[in-house]
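Researcher: Next sequence.
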Amino acid sequence: MKKLFERIFRFRTWILNLVLTLAIVAPDLLNSPELLALIPAEYQRWVIAGAFLINIWMRPRPAVLPSDPEVMRQEERR
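Model: Next structure:
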């Protein structure tokens, strides 16, 4: 259970961005004529999902926790 909370804490920005992006943008994208003209209907959802994943993967690494080695090294330097 502790590991689950740690993962949620580390990826909280990504999770929130994904949920908000899907809630706000997906309905407009799925109904836009430009998207319908370029991508076949059976692949549209997969293309949008792939674009969201690429957006998330392009972001910086997950948050650092106080127990991480790099935080401990910075405290030792001080």
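Model: The first helix runs from residue 2 to 10. The mean pLDDT is 76.
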